[in-house]
Automatic annotation (TrEMBL):
Pfam families: Methyltransf_16. This is Calmodulin-lysine N-methyltransferase. It comes from the Eukaryota. InterPro entries: Methyltransf_16, SAM-dependent_MTases_sf.
């Protein structure tokens, strides 16, 4: 959003206070004057660059898509594939939010000796999944087991 883009952030409603603090720390101000934790959606603006952020509550297991302005050009997610019992709900949510040209980028850190990517295998029935190893780029951060997957 700092470059003038329109961005929609989603998370569980219980996470709104932390997200709101992060937005404030990055120069965004709430446009509608209400506290983000009190709403299912809030709008934020950034003075420089003209970007806007809409923050919407989204629970994959009980999704309400009425506040989401999809389909989206790009969907970014980090560490959202950890819980295998939520993979089906996540997949159905992505299918609802994606259009024909949407690119989904998910970052996933392999933990505890994990060598497979069950969500990617499940999603391959609906998306062209491309794993992009990025260990070399992350070595300086002492992260050695992270991959990014592109879903088209």
């Amino acid at each position: 959003a700092l470059g003038g883009a329109r961005v929609t952030l989603t998370d569980l409603l219980s996470c709104f206070p932390v997200t709101a603090d992060n937005l404030k720390a990055n120069g965004f101000a709430m446009a509608n004057g209400a506290a983000g934790a009190e709403l299912n959606a809030s709008h934020w603006t950034q003075q420089e660059g003209g970007g806007t952020i809409q923050m919407c509550a989204l629970d994959w297991c009980k999704p309400d898509f009425s506040l989401l302005p999809g389909p989206f050009d790009v969907i970014l997610g980090a560490d959202i594939t950890i819980y295998e019992d939520r993979h089906e709900a996540l997949l159905q949510t992505l299918l609802q939010l994606c259009g024909p040209s949407t690119v989904v980028v998910l970052a996933h850190e392999y933990r505890g000796g994990q060598t497979t990517f069950p969500f990617g295998d499940m999603a391959a029935a609906h998306f062209d999944v491309q794993r992009v190893p990025c260990a070399e780029a992350l070595q300086e951060c002492n992260i050695v087991s992270e991959d990014v997957a592109l879903y088209r």
